[in-house]
Write a structure and sequence with these properties.
Oligomer: single chain
Strand content: 25-35%
Number of strands: 11
Shape: elongated
Distance between the termini: 78 Å
Number of helices: 1
Length: 223
């Protein structure tokens, strides 16, 4: 059994204080890990709550944390709020993540010909409890109630999950999902969402092309 020599400096393992990892394929971003240090700490900005991709960052979305910053780690100093506040989140930023300038953009990440539509999926019918930003889904308009004039479900669009959050219980407890769809399909998806008849089917990346050429239904069709 090895024993420390008398008088030898004692080695102290420093505890992990914060972990902010953001990985974006093709965006050139790398995760940043901040470790607490017995030495100098710096005030930096971290996410005060989950920030969905594509949303504009406001002052309430960020807070200041005193952290030890290893050399070479990109962070946003507390004195440089203007680097992130007022800009658009280029990726989904989880609560507590340490912010960097690469996570935000001065322009919307929604490309020309695309649109973002919000839908709410009721509790119990989500395709998965772990739906994530970047997942591909098929957007389905389900049949209406008995006696309605919409007896047949219809596929409306193939979409990519752009943002997702769980509603509070007093709001229904559903899954609020922002979907990135082709612009010509946005009206039909929004119309079905307004009548609470949207369901999502999780697709594999290989299967997502199978519905891309489906004719776009006119808004209100089949209602």
């Amino acid at each position: 059994m090895n024993r420390a020599r008398p008088g030898a400096p004692r080695r102290v393992e420093l505890p992990l204080a914060a972990l902010g990892v953001v990985l974006v394929v093709g965006a050139g971003l790398v995760g940043a890990m901040l470790v607490s240090s017995a030495g100098q700490r710096s005030p930096v900005l971290v996410a005060a709550r989950d920030i969905p991709a594509g949303s504009r960052v406001d002052a309430a979305d960020v807070r200041v944390a005193e952290l030890g910053v290893p050399p070479g780690v990109a962070v946003v100093a507390a004195s440089a709020r203007s680097r992130v506040v007022g800009r658009v989140a280029a990726v989904a930023i989880p609560r507590g993540a340490v912010l960097s300038g690469a996570q935000v953009s001065s322009s919307s990440p929604v490309a020309r010909g695309e649109a973002v539509v919000g839908v709410v999926v009721p509790p119990g019918v989500e395709p998965t409890a772990d739906l994530r930003v970047g997942d591909w889904v098929s957007v389905i308009r389900v049949a209406g109630s008995a006696g309605s004039d919409a007896p047949v479900p219809a596929g409306l669009a193939t979409a990519r999950v752009y943002g997702v959050r769980r509603q509070a219980v007093d709001q229904g407890g559903g899954l609020a999902v922002s979907l990135l769809v082709a612009a010509p399909r946005a009206a039909s998806v929004a119309d079905a969402a307004a009548s609470e008849r949207v369901r999502l089917v999780l697709l594999s990346a290989a299967d997502r092309h199978s519905l891309d050429d489906r004719p776009t239904p006119a808004p209100g069709a089949g209602r």
